[in-house]
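DM between two lab members

TW: hey, do you still have the Outer envelope pore protein 16-3, chloroplastic/mitochondrial entry open?
JB: yeah, one sec
JB: this one, 178 aa:
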Amino acid sequence: MAEDKLTLRVEKWITMPRIAASRFRRSTKTNHSSRLQKDMDPAEDEDTLTMKTIKGATTAFVAGSIWGGIVSTWYNVPRVERPGFVRTLKMMGNYGMTCAAMRGVYIGVKQSVLKYRMKRDFVNGAVGGFVAGATVLGRSISTAISAGTALAITSSVIDIFDMGKDPYTTKKKPSADS
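TW: and the structure you got?
JB:
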């Protein structure tokens, strides 16, 4: 009797890895694409909210820095002296960071609203524009409302008259039905 229990335990111990391996094989066959997505580095996926926000903010920082350099020449900043160069760099950084913050907030909110609503229309851009204008440019409540409204209207007009391309990629926008 004791021998039967021992044999049963040994047989169970031998067959368990086979059962576990077959379960693992079945799960990997059915969930192959999800496993690939988990194994992929998030920085490699260009369609995530984070990557779109980072790309937009980086682009806006570069453009804002260039614009800050142009504006600094209008304010009679001496070009040769060291303090003048430092003031130019500060102005470039200020413009660059403001543009990056606005673009980052705008894209982040717009893509979040798009993901939440699951609709691709002008409302997403209007909400993103309002939040970006109100948070970055709003020093007081009235200024925040004015800046947010101005950016929301601008974004809505651009989204309404846009030609059907996704501004963050080179692909055509999918229709609302798919």
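TW: got it. Residues 24-37 have pLDDT under 50 and may be disordered. The CA atoms of residues 26 and 32 lie 10 Å apart.
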